[in-house]
Amino acid sequence: MTEEDGRTPAAVVFDALGLDYERAFADSAERRASLDWLLERLAPGSRVLDVGSGTGRPTAHTLAGAGHRVLGLDVSPVMVDLATRQVPGAEFRLADIRDAPLAEASFDAVCAYFSLLQMSRAEQAAVVAKLARVVRPGGLVALATVPLDVEDAEGVFMGQPIRVTSFGAEAFTGLVTGAGLTVLAEECSRYTPDLPGATPEPQLFLHARRPGRPPEDR
Question: Name one Pfam family in it (predicted).
Answer without folding.
Answer: Methyltransf_25
